[in-house]
Design a protein that fits this description.
alpha/beta
Length: 371
């Protein structure tokens, strides 16, 4: 069977993802596992807000997943502070906290610094700092966290159907998941296995596994069944995380070398460097305007490259109302260059991007509109 070339979308599953004997993933000494990142924060809210007389305030960065913010608003009073991936540090003047508030410090795209948060916390020890390491769960910042709590949605970077981890850099009491697993994880695992067969040229309909992916998310959103699946819990420590991170970083460096080899006025990489001990989430580009971004995305999809947008804003009825964050969300595009792909794959992706921008504006619009 001839393998299909496709880049992006959800992970598939392969036994090749398992590390060799004796090379376990490095996890915190004490942690709890949940089905999703939001579920771990709902669990945290339950132990911090036992009086249940009012919602706790949760401060989120203005550049954030609005779908997640919408879910969190069910349990928290959402406040916003300015933190953009285009800026090195958060704007702490916009972070107006009161005692007992929770602040979510997000390592956006895995390129942010943690020390600035520790410096800020020294003069704000009456708030609860929660770090979000979903974009790089195994960074030096994450593994050496000194925050009250730290969490990560693991399925953003790892090939597992569900899973989030929460721990405390101060050895505080941790929330625990219920005894009920979501059947969403097993629908997603089925989708991952079917996608692997599809990519290997098997007689599998893409619509079949895509429908399972959609159904799985609906099930995983059920906060009553917030326990991580048996599969993800047991396979987590066996995944070859070291190789994943090495390959991801090599791919992103290769993407940047190719992207920066010539000047572009219609698009540019969001970042070109990151701290030691960190590995970026993926290759991220910013286009001149939304129209170009949307045309490029359609062109890439027509060439079997499926780039997500992190993150549309407004979304799910939520917005931070920060004009810079909204503008960036309209122009940003995530180019999948994670551990699933080779350097040759990355080269092909960049070639297709440059191919799009080599067409004049009218040619590109005509092509995309014909799809």
């Amino acid at each position: 069977m001839e393998k299909l070339w496709e880049v992006g979308s959800e992970f598939d599953w392969s036994n090749d993802f398992i590390s060799r004997v004796g090379e376990a993933a490095h996890l915190p000494s004490d942690y709890e596992l949940f089905s999703t990142g939001c579920a771990s924060l709902f669990g945290l809210e339950k132990i911090l807000n036992q009086k249940r007389d009012k919602k706790l305030r949760l401060h989120l960065p203005c550049f954030f997943c609005m779908e997640a913010a919408s879910k969190l608003a069910k349990a928290f009073q959402i406040c916003w502070y300015r933190d953009l991936p285009t800026q090195k540090y958060p704007d702490f003047d916009t972070l107006n906290v009161s005692g007992g508030d929770l602040v979510l410090a997000v390592n956006l795209f895995g390129i942010k610094s943690g020390q600035v948060w520790q410096d800020w916390l020294k003069s704000h020890d009456n708030v609860i700092l929660v770090e979000d390491h979903s974009h790089d769960p195994f960074s030096t910042w994450a593994l050496q966290s000194k925050a009250d709590y730290a969490m990560a949605s693991l399925r953003k970077t790892l090939p597992i159907p569900d899973g989030a981890i929460i721990w405390s850099g101060k050895n505080l009491s941790l929330p625990k998941a219920s005894k009920s697993e979501s059947d969403g994880a097993y629908k997603r695992l089925s989708a991952m296995l079917l996608k692997r067969a599809y990519l290997n040229g098997g007689n599998v309909s893409k619509n079949t596994y895509r429908q399972l992916e959609i159904e799985s998310q609906d099930s995983l959103d059920d906060v009553e069944n917030d326990r991580i699946s048996t599969f993800s819990a047991n396979v987590l420590s066996s995944l070859d995380v070291k190789q994943f991170r090495e390959r991801r970083e090599a791919n992103i460096k290769h993407f940047l070398n190719l992207a920066l080899s010539e000047q572009h006025n219609k698009w540019q990489p969001l970042f070109s460097f990151w701290e030691n001990g960190s590995v970026p989430f993926n290759s991220i580009i910013v286009c001149e305007n939304r129209e170009i971004r949307d045309f490029l995305r359609k062109y890439l999809i027509s060439n079997s490259i499926f780039p997500p947008i992190h993150w549309p804003q407004p979304g799910n009825g939520m917005t931070s109302k920060d004009l810079e964050a909204i503008d960036l969300s309209n122009r940003i595009l995530t180019i999948p260059t994670d551990q699933r792909y080779s350097l040759d794959d990355v080269s092909r992706v960049v070639m297709i991007i440059k191919e799009f921008f080599s067409m004049n504006e009218s040619q590109s619009k005509m092509y995309v509109n014909s799809l």
